[in-house]
């Protein structure tokens, strides 16, 4: 069982490669856009709930 795990780990490390700068920047942009979208949705929900439920 341990030998099988080590064999699979070795295979993954051989197939994996370090991303180049363009690929890294694309992933960073998509991640940033996703975080911003989730934040805006949360802000809109907060605004709507503050108007609907008076404090």
TrEMBL record:
**Protein's cellular compartments:** Cell membrane; Endomembrane system
Task: State the membrane topology.
Answer: Single-pass membrane protein
Principal localization?
Answer: membrane
Task: Choose any GO biological process term that the UniProt entry carries and state it.
Answer: intracellular protein transmembrane transport
Q: Which family does it belong to?
A: Belongs to the SecE/SEC61-gamma family.
**Alphabetical list of InterPro entries matching this protein:** Prot_translocase_SecE_dom_sf (IPR023391), Translocase_Sec61-g (IPR008158), Translocase_SecE/Sec61-g (IPR001901)
Assembly and interaction partners: Component of the Sec protein translocase complex. Heterotrimer consisting of SecY (alpha), SecG (beta) and SecE (gamma) subunits. The heterotrimers can form oligomers, although 1 heterotrimer is thought to be able to translocate proteins. Interacts with the ribosome. May interact with SecDF, and other proteins may be involved.
Q: Which keywords label this protein? A: Cell membrane, Membrane, Protein transport, Translocation, Transmembrane, Transmembrane helix, Transport
A GO term, aspect molecular function: protein transmembrane transporter activity
Q: What does this protein do?
A: Essential subunit of the Sec protein translocation channel SecYEG. Clamps together the 2 halves of SecY. May contact the channel plug during translocation.
Query: Which organism is the protein's source?
Result: candidate division MSBL1 archaeon SCGC-AAA259I09
Q: Where is the signal peptide?
A: none
Q: Name one Pfam family in it.
A: SecE
* Spans through the membrane: 30-53
The record's GO CC annotations read: endomembrane system; plasma membrane
Tell me if Oxidoreductase is a UniProt keyword of this record.
no
The protein's superkingdom reads: Archaea
- The name on file for this protein is Protein translocase subunit SecE
Tell me if Cell wall biogenesis/degradation is a UniProt keyword of this record.
no
């Amino acid at each position: 069982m341990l030998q099988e795990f080590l064999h699979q780990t070795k295979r993954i490390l051989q197939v994996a490669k370090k991303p180049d700068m363009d690929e890294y920047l694309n992933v960073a942009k998509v991640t940033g856009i996703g975080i911003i979208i989730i934040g805006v949705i949360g802000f809109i929900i907060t605004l709507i709930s503050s108007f609907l439920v008076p404090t």
